[in-house]
Design brief:
Blueprint (H helix, E strand, L loop, with lengths): L2 H24 L1 H7 L12 H23 L5 H23 L7 H4 L1 H5 L3
Length: 117
């Protein structure tokens, strides 16, 4: 993969992840109710939990952006960011398989939950 494409991916992914985390911290209810990802299907809003995860998304976003600037030594940071997103995706898979999320989430979660890791 060309270096410029990898840098672009990390940078774009980092900015998007930072924006998501910032939205979670600044306005958790609008994030919960207006993110086009069916978040209300996961249960009632827990403001503290949304804030906690907002911090995690911000850390992951900064990690991805750091990787964009430090490709030669980004493996440990990449592994941490990927572990978070893969774990998040596996939670969604487990909830889908257990019937805790509607089957529509296989497609809803594909672009932003399943594809990134």
């Amino acid at each position: 993969m060309k270096r410029s494409l990898v840098v672009w991916f990390y940078g774009t992914f980092g900015v998007g992840t930072l924006a998501n985390g910032g939205w979670m911290l600044i306005s958790p209810f609008t994030w919960y109710s207006q993110l086009p990802a069916g978040v209300p299907d996961t249960g009632p809003i827990n403001f503290h939990f949304v804030h906690d995860l907002g911090v995690v998304f911000i850390i992951a976003g900064f990690g991805a952006m750091w990787c964009a600037k430090n490709l030669e030594r980004c493996a440990p940071v990449h592994a941490g960011v990927t572990a978070f997103f893969a774990g998040h995706a596996l939670v969604h898979v487990a909830e889908l398989l257990a019937g805790k999320l509607p089957p529509a989430h296989w497609l809803i979660d594909l672009p932003l939950t399943f594809a990134p890791p």
